[in-house]
Amino acid sequence: MPFVTEEIWQVLAKNQRSLMLQPYPRSNASWLDEETENQMEFLMGVIRGVRNLRTEMSCPPGKEVKVIFHGPERDLSFLRDQEFYLRSLARVGLR
Q1: Which of 21, 23, 27, 48 has the most C-beta neighbours closer than 10 Å?
Q2: Domain residues of the chain, as ranges?
Q3: What is the C-alpha separation between 23 and 17, in angstroms, rounded?
Q4: What pLDDT band is residue 95 in, cutting at 50, 70 and 90?
Q5: CA proximity to 67, closest of 87, 82, 39, 48
Q6: What are the residues facing 66 on neighbouring strands?
Q7: Stretch 10-33: mean pLDDT, rounded?
Q8: Per-residue pLDDT at 2
Q9: Residue closest to 89 by CA, chosen among 61, 60, 67, 68
Q10: What is the rounded distance in angstroms from the CA atom of residue 60 to the CA atom of residue 63?
Q11: How far apart, in whole angstroms, are the C-alpha atoms of residue 64 and residue 57?
């Protein structure tokens, strides 16, 4: 892959030194969004919890399970909006 990456760099960044000689990218504080970080952490925790329960209950990986979530409406609304990810990553159907 490094050869392909270097080739793309040479095409896109004309008159630039090799990609291997460029400074490593630095993060920008304006890119951080604490609310999004918290939402992603919450979603990953839910998916991790469902997967752990599936393992404990010896549920086959390919079988979709029905789950019922309880909690604040804000969290439930967020989970409904993330249904695609819950279905594909935790193999759940929502009620």
Answers
A1: 48
A2: 34-95
A3: 11
A4: low
A5: 87
A6: 93
A7: 88
A8: 81
A9: 61
A10: 6
A11: 13
Looking at residue 85, what is its pLDDT?
A: 95
Give the C-alpha distances (Å, rounded to integers) separating 8 from 11, 22, 58, 79. Answer: 5, 14, 46, 39
> What pLDDT score does 43 carry?
98
Q: What is the largest CA-CA distance in the chain?
A: 59
pLDDT of 20: 87
What do you get for the CA distance between the two ends of the chain, in Å?
44
Token pair for residue 72? 């604040």
Which residue has 């918290």 as its token pair?
A: 38
Q: Which two tokens stand for residue 12?
A: 């896109």
Backbone angles phi, psi at 45, to 5 degrees: -65, -40
At position 41, the amino acid (one-letter code) is: E
* pLDDT score, position 3: 86
Whole-Å CA distances, 33 to 10, 37, 41, 42, 57: 33, 6, 12, 14, 36
